[in-house]
């Protein structure tokens, strides 16, 4: 099972390496031309490419860790390194956005002269490089947070290239000096909401919140619809890493149907309807549940209010 989930990121490693090579090479070109021509929008795009490089390196590092086997101490393996990499990417992007917006505000007070032709040529080539990178990562972005973080950064670069091209056209046709800091600020603002979504997704996983694509109410109703289920408690659903959803629950049966059949039906339902293939389900009779409460001195209602979403 662990290897099945690891393959979700591993199969995209070659594409990540290809995008890393393209991005690293053109980042140097953009930064060099940006500083020579004093173009903030090119420097901004190069700065965002720098976060791409860092993000891609962290993504590849996370894939390497995810392939390490589980141990007695790390019973789930090292899947969470992917989430930590996504979190680091988000924080890095916030820092880059802040720098771009600060520099843009400063240049609005005294915009420098920026030659239009070098800006147009470099930005146009950069757009092509970013489109290739986005195409390579598009599929993986739908499967793992790790690749999604890199994909979002490339999307930001695409907008940066479009902004740089637009700024160059305005400078070429009108000579309006504010175009460069204006479009640079646009790049910084575009990054923020997408970075927030990435940060929120990573934090949700680290806090073991229920996955956003699974309705707890639907899971509860589905479990109660299984023939033989009397009630349930201590229901938890959380994400270990992208595509690896776990569930645990205590199920009380009505003793009119075999516990084996009830367990098989619940596991089949969770997998077929919700895609949950890693479920720990404890089957209990009502009498056993009452005896456990008595021997352990824990009231199930109180435990449920502290540790689970619902107690039925």
Question: Descriptors for this entry?
Answer:
312 residues; mainly alpha; Alpha-lytic protease prodomain-like; Alpha-Beta Plaits; three-stranded mixed sheet; 3 strands; 10% strand; disordered N terminus
Would you mind describing this structure in some detail?
This protein has 312 residues and is mainly α. The chain has 2 domains: 2-206, Up-down Bundle (Alpha-lytic protease prodomain-like), CATH 1.20.1510.10; 216-307, Alpha-Beta Plaits (2-Layer Sandwich), CATH 3.30.70. Helix content is 70%, strand content 10%. The protein contains 11 helices and 3 strands, in the order H-H-H-H-H-H-H-H-E-E-H-E-H-H. It has helices at residues 2-10, 13-37, 40-66, 80-109, 116-141, 145-173, 179-206, 216-224, 259-274, 286-296, 300-307; strands at residues 229-241, 244-253, 278-285. It has a 3-stranded mixed sheet with strand order 1-2-3. Helix 3 (40-66) runs antiparallel to helix 6, helix 4 runs parallel beside helix 6 and helix 5 runs antiparallel to helix 6. The longest helix has 30 residues, at 80-109. It is elongated, with a radius of gyration of 26 Å. The protein starts with a helix and ends in a 5-residue tail after the last helix. Residues 1-7 and 300-312 have low confidence and may be disordered.
């Amino acid at each position: 099972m662990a290897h099945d989930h690891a393959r979700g990121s591993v199969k995209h490693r070659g594409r990540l390496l290809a995008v890393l090579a393209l991005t690293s090479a053109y980042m140097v070109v953009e930064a060099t031309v940006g500083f020579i021509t004093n173009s903030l929008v090119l420097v901004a795009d190069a700065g965002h490419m720098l976060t791409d490089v860092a993000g891609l390196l962290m993504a590849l590092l996370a894939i390497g860790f995810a392939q390490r086997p589980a141990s007695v101490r790390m019973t789930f393996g090292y899947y969470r390194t992917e989430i930590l990499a996504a979190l680091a990417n988000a924080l890095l992007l916030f820092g880059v956005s802040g720098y771009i917006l600060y520099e843009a505000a400063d240049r609005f007070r005294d915009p420098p002269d920026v030659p239009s032709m070098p800006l147009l040529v470099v930005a146009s080539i950069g757009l092509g490089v970013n489109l290739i990178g986005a195409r390579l990562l598009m599929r993986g972005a739908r499967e793992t947070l790790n690749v999604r973080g890199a994909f979002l950064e490339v999307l930001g670069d695409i907008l940066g290239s479009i902004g740089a091209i637009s700024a160059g056209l305005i400078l070429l046709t009108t000579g309006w000096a504010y175009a460069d800091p204006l479009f640079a600020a646009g790049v910084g603002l575009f990054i923020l909401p997408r970075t927030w979504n990435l940060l929120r997704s990573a934090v949700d996983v680290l806090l073991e919140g229920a996955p956003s694509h699974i309705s707890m109410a639907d899971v509860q109703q589905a479990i109660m619809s299984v023939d033989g289920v009397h009630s349930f408690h201590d229901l938890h659903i959380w994400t270990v890493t992208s595509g690896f959803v776990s569930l645990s629950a205590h199920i009380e049966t009505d003793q009119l149907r075999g516990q084996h059949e009830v367990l098989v039906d619940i596991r089949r339902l969770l997998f077929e309807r919700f895609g949950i293939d890693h479920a720990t389900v404890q089957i209990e009779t009502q009498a056993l549940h009452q005896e456990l409460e008595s021997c352990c001195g824990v009231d199930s209602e109180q435990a449920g209010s502290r540790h689970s979403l619902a107690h039925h």
